[in-house]
Design brief:
By secondary structure, the protein is α/β, with parallel strands linked by helices. The protein has helices at residues 30-42, 65-75, 100-114, 133-145, 159-172, 198-205, 244-260, 264-273, 288-297, 304-317, and strands at residues 7-9, 12-14, 18-20, 47-49, 84-89, 91-92, 95-96, 119-124, 149-155, 179-181, 208-209, 282-284. Strand 4 (47-49), helix 2 (65-75) and strand 5 form a beta-alpha-beta unit. Helix 2 crosses helix 3, helix 4 packs across helix 5 and helix 5 runs parallel beside helix 6 (198-205). The two termini are 28 Å apart.
Length: 319
């Protein structure tokens, strides 16, 4: 499978690797973010993914910082029609959950920060079981019919809740979600692959998948090696990977990367890019150096033996 052309998702054409915006306004200031966005677009990428909650966890931030940076970028360049723009609702501290009123208010605020009239994919970021699902489905459909969003996406939803959303949408005459955003990478596969997993559910319902944590919070970039202390902003996120089997995966990724003269992150992304049902993995970059392997992964081709090797070591490391 080639990674050089766009992939169809409903009426959208998506580049095979998406750019995650979680670092914008957090570890990447506006100038660095603009550089990354410009270079990604120039390289042929077109999917920019963010959320209204990014990055409330950073000192001094309250959420909406990433959308603001992206909106400033869009307003300063005539590129909106070249971008597939995705954002999410439910995690911004002052706009939590998925009640109809919250979805309405959060969406208007996201549109304002993003400085656009419509969002191409609007995600329910996390399931809100305190709100009737019928209310949430109706709120998203109202926004779609008003032209404020084009398509609905689901992120972090369990298979049974995805099916419930579809049943409600069908019964109410609402548009079905077109994409699922799961946690999925070489070291995290079990709740996506296999019988009853999110991948099977997405396939049966005709959804694409846009995995997040595609690089396992940086672990698959090769920056963490055996016997070395783990530090940095994401150290806590890779605690579960401090096992020999996981380092074996990193070693295999590094070996394949050396053969192709690319960085390990490009290999990890290319493997995930071509997994069944995946439309585009998401990866973030706080500078041009980190963007380089994302750009390489747009076109990198792994041979069948390399794919088998990576999958075999991944199988051994599955939690």
């Amino acid at each position: 499978m080639t990674g050089t052309s766009t992939r169809a998702l409903a009426d959208l054409q998506i580049s095979p690797i998406g750019l995650g915006g979680n670092v914008f306004g957090w570890t990447a200031d506006e100038a660095a973010s603009f550089d990354v966005l410009d270079a990604y677009l120039d390289a042929g990428g077109n999917l920019v993914d963010t959320a209204d909650g990014y990055s409330y966890w950073a000192p001094g931030n309250s959420g909406g910082e990433s959308e603001t940076v992206i909106g400033n970028w869009l307003s300063s360049r005539p590129v909106r029609d070249r971008i597939v723009l995705a954002t999410k609702v439910s995690t911004k501290p002052d706009r939590p959950g998925l009640s109809a009123d919250n979805v309405r208010l959060a969406l208007e605020e996201s549109l304002s920060r993003l400085r656009t009239d419509t969002i191409d994919i609007y995600y329910a970021h996390f399931d809100d079981k305190s709100t009737p699902l019928e209310e949430t489905v109706s709120a998203f459909e109202k926004a779609r019919r008003a032209g404020r969003i084009k398509h609905v996406g689901l992120s972090n939803y369990a298979p049974e809740r995805i099916r419930q959303w579809f049943a409600i949408a069908d019964s109410q005459g609402c548009a079905r979600p077109i994409v699922l955003q799961p946690h999925y990478n070489l070291l995290h596969r079990d709740d996506v692959e296999g019988p009853g997993g999110r991948g099977q559910t997405a396939d049966e319902l005709g959804m694409g998948m846009m995995p997040y944590f595609a690089l396992a919070a940086g672990f698959l970039t090769g920056k963490y090696r055996r016997g070395e202390a783990v530090d940095g902003e994401r150290a806590g996120m890779v605690a579960d990977y401090q096992r020999p089997e996981c380092y074996d995966v990193v070693d295999a990724v590094v070996q394949v990367a050396e053969a192709h003269r690319v960085e390990p992150a490009a290999v990890a992304l290319a493997w995930l890019r071509d997994r069944p049902g995946v439309t585009a993995p998401l990866a973030s970059a706080r500078n041009l150096r980190q963007l380089a392997p994302i750009v390489d992964a747009l076109t990198l081709e792994l041979d069948e033996e390399e794919i088998r090797t990576l999958t075999r070591v991944s199988d051994a490391a599955r939690l």
